[in-house]
Each structure stands twice: as structure tokens, then as C-alpha cells.
Amino acid sequence: MIEPLLEVRGVRYAALIGPNGEIVTRGGPQIGEQPGSSLTDLVSAGQAVGRSLTGAMNTASWNELLLDVDGGPVLLTTHGDQVLVTAFDDVANLGRVRFALRRVLGAG
């Protein structure tokens, strides 16, 4: 599932995190630089922010959350009860990454 994302210019790594915080699959040229616990911690924090924002905005759910962290931007995208983590090199590539995500997730 994540292989097509890894072909997008600028994508450093991608990982699918399950509902219980387990890594379902991951890959990419820089995935070895991200310990599994760091990925799951990032997703847990993102989910907490998403829940807080949905409560504040009175919406049922969140779809995407972009974090611009020291190592570069990371996009968290919900996929059912899982979260897809996509790290890439520059915020300017966000459109390219989101387009690829729509194709991979079947929403476009």
C-alpha cells in the first residue's frame, strides 16, 4: 500500500499505524532513522490534537494533520481506524504528496 507513496519525489518515508499503535507496514529511504516508538508517539500525539480540534470545531472526525517538525514536514492521514504517516522533504511538496495519497487511498 505504501510503495506508491515512496515513489513520489521528496517522500522520505511512510508508515501505516494500526488502531492499537502497532506499525502495520513502513518503508522508505530514511525509515531507519525513525525508531518505531517515535512513529507511534507522533501518531498518538497527532490523534490527541485531532480529537481536541474536532471537539473545538464541533466536527465528527479529522482527516489530515500536517506537522512541520525539525526533520521536515510530516502528514498524518486517517485511513479507517489507522493512520498513515508520510514524511517528506519540503512543505512545497504537500500538493504532490496529497495527490498521491488520494490515489493510494482510493479517494480520487
UniProtKB/TrEMBL annotation:
Entry superkingdom: Bacteria
Pfam families named among the record's database cross-references: Robl_LC7 (PF03259)
InterPro entries the record matches: Roadblock/LAMTOR2_dom
Listed SMART domains: Robl_LC7
Residue intervals of the Roadblock/LAMTOR2 domain: 1-88
Name of this chain's protein: Roadblock/LC7 domain-containing protein
Organism in which the protein naturally occurs: Deinococcus taklimakanensis
Classification of source organism: Bacteria, Thermotogati, Deinococcota, Deinococci, Deinococcales
